[in-house]
Specification:
Pfam families: NUDIX. This protein is about 20% helix and about 35% strand. It has about 140 residues and is of the alpha+beta class. The protein has a single domain (about 10-135), classed as Nucleoside Triphosphate Pyrophosphohydrolase, CATH 3.90.79.
């Protein structure tokens, strides 16, 4: 049996404002719009990683605990992503080393700006359905 490479685990935070819009970032590395987030570091808890990644990419500190709204597997990249609906408690949106732009987006704008695999994460978080969504994608499209 061939040796399979391990999966990585990432987190993403969907910050929702008072009007129901979600904060999206445009990544510097690929120009894609998506919620802020990234891969967990060794020895880091899921909440700590979520708070760190959102702060690094947006300048916003979020309240913990945040609400898990979905689990997503990139079948191509072997990444399992945990997505949370978040509440901002401090800071203002700013770009940084990993973020070239930020934008508060409505549901319709999310589907226009982001690839389907990332837009659905934001829409699931806006809906905050219970139980959380569990979905698979190929990095761009749901499968």
């Amino acid at each position: 049996m061939p040796m399979e490479r391990p999966h990585s685990v990432s987190v993403a935070g969907v910050i929702v404002d008072d009007t129901g819009r979600a904060l999206l970032i445009r990544r510097r590395d690929n120009g894609h719009w998506e919620p802020p987030g990234g891969v967990l570091e060794a020895g880091e808890t899921i909440p700590d990683a979520l708070q760190r990644e959102v702060l690094e990419e947006t300048g916003i500190k979020i309240a913990l605990p945040a609400t898990l709204t979905g689990v997503y597997k990139n079948m191509t990249g072997l990444i399992v992503s945990l997505v949370f609906r978040c509440e901002a408690i401090d800071g203002q949106p700013v770009t940084g080393d990993e973020t070239s732009a930020l934008r508060w987006a409505t549901r319709d704008e999310v589907t226009e700006l982001a690839d389907e695999a990332y837009a659905i994460r934001v829409l699931d978080a806006l809906d905050a359905a219970s139980p959380p969504a569990v979905r698979a994608h190929d990095g761009v499209k749901l499968i």
